[in-house]
Amino acid sequence: MQLRAIPFIFMRGGTSRGPYFLRSDLPTDRDVLAEVLMAVVGSGQPGNIDGIGGGTPVTAKVVILSRSEDPEVDVDYFFAQVSPDKREVDFAPSCGNMLAGVGPASIEMGLVEACDGVTTIRIRAVNTGALVEAVVQTPHGVVAYDGTTRIDGVLGTAAPIRLSFQNTVGSKTGALFPTGNRMEEIGGISVSCIDAAMPMVFARAADFGLTGYESKGELDANKAFFARMEAIRIEGGKRMGFGDVSHSVLPKFGLIAPPRGTGTVASRYFMPWSCHPTYAVTGAICLCACVLAPGTVASSVALRPTGSTAVLVIEHPAGVLELVAEYTVCGDDVDFKKLGTLRTARKLAAGTVFIPGDVWPDHVPTADDPKVVESRSPAIGASCLV
Q: For 306-317, what is each residue's pLDDT tens digit?
């Protein structure tokens, strides 16, 4: 069997991990790209034994990077959610955890030139159109991975990466409340269908007879809940304008409950066919919108902050996720200026991944290929703070 080699960096981003590629090293045709990514991950077999996936949704994620043609943006970030156990790839969502690795990977892959001290990288999430600033620690012009920042769901500590999101409202639908309702009923359950960074359907855990504090294992084993939740998610997706979402990960689903500790709200995030071990960053942004907007299902359970800047703490199965929101409320309208969080990332491996040659049988790039030469040309500068 002839094998095809593709260069990559393997990184943990937040509480997820997967390969990071240059766009120029992958096929442009979307169908062929999907086949390539499934071959890389080993999709369609438990454990992903014939690929580098980890057998779970949070370890079957792929990041594709390129230099942006927009002068206001440094890097375009294209995300792919590969199904670990099915032959499917979803290009619709984005991933805020893998986004944490985009800044370091962009520097490591030569797309951005690092500053001495701190490097600010302007990123466009291609899947949703959101604009993000990533502040990466780069002493002496080199990415620092060691540090004292701890995030729940990851052992140890690492260097902080600050992410600030803009243009998150209406990421896929163009509206914060794409159904026109802040709260509505589906299948006898009150829900809020919201689109901010990630389209989601939220419901109160108590309405399902749950506490909202269940572990990932307890929820994954509750098949009756999943059957009911999926029917509500599918109908919510239809009302949000997505059509039949039975084979799409969008919209995602979230359960909410009053905080158990000192947080703002307790929540469980679904990917959607299993519970997330922690919480997706994009899902957390959408939950913040649900908490801050009056009249949603979160209004009666969350501790809504006041003021134009607020810290929101989401209690999830492995701990908490903290976000800072800059926003204004005028009546029932909420205007989100910026939403930020602190994540970490780490480079795990770098080199070449091999796939069967018949998966992508066309022209194999060489060192003289113009596209490859362009992708390895001198990096662009980024914003520097010393």
A: 778 889 999 999
